[in-house]
Amino acid sequence: MRTLVSCLALLLAPSAVIAEEIPGSRISYGNWSGAGYTYDDGTFSHCAVSAAYRHGNTLLFSVNTDATVNVGVIAPSDTFTPQEEFPVALFVDRRPPFFGNATALDNTFAVLNISDLERALDSFRRGRTLIIQSKFGETPFDLTGTTRALAATFDCAVRNHAYRAAQPQQPRNQVDPAILMQVAAGTITTLGVSDFTFLSAAEMKEAFPNADPSLQSIFWRSPNLGLLSGVVVAARGPESDLKAGDANDLAMLSSMCSGDFVTGVRQVPEAEVDMREIRAGCTDGSAVSEHYLTKFFLGDMVVYSWLWFEGSKAQSERAPARNEMSKSVALYTASFLSE
Fold first, then answer.
1. What is the pTM of this model?
2. Could you say which residues form the signal peptide (predicted)?
């Protein structure tokens, strides 16, 4: 089941791409709580509040950027068919009902959009009981507390209607992503790998959950070699000596190991540029991994070539060959990017 926060973020529409909560927009009155949210581009999307009920359902309201209101329900168990539309009727006391087609966003979460903003807010704020009828049955919701909660939601929407999140500044010095892809492809060819797959954004986040978002990188995996390999580009910083960054690089590799950790650092004499190789091994119970991290300066950037061996491949008899693999990859990367 979706988390409540994700449901609040998705209240606007099934096809909307929602990003972040708006800072300072939190809403809390009695059992009702919520916030304002943006689209993926940082512009205002909607403000929403929700409350959980004893019968197990959670009721959600949102005031949207297009001056509509959404009513959503999170069921306590799988109830809906994702993306299904089905007719619903909303009754508030003896007021005129609302009719429409709700959309199921997943197995437990469905939303109805109401275009009559003024009547919807007046009904839900002043009413005592909301009854939602559909093919799934009839569910009552006590509207106690909605007066202040919905007033705050409407005020949130008015206050943030022109909101636009500050866009993160892009580093001035970056490598063209297409060139990084060529480097990765050339690395694969250099190593003669045939079973490679590139990591998706989700796989990258899983492999490197604490990665600096300003870094440029591309990684691929070879199951046959037990290898995760990639190229990473970072800002050079104030250091004029490549060796000065060794301690930070070792600390980063060490943070990825919860067992015994051994390292070695050497200058790569075969390179035409100043180049250093950091080798690190981690043994955590029966799990073994080995890293070859080679780096060099490229203008205002530092470029890393990374070979990460895991499992039985990391402790096989092919260890001497991995030194040559690391050197070949690093020399190829430096040669390609320096041209």
1. 0.51
2. 1-19
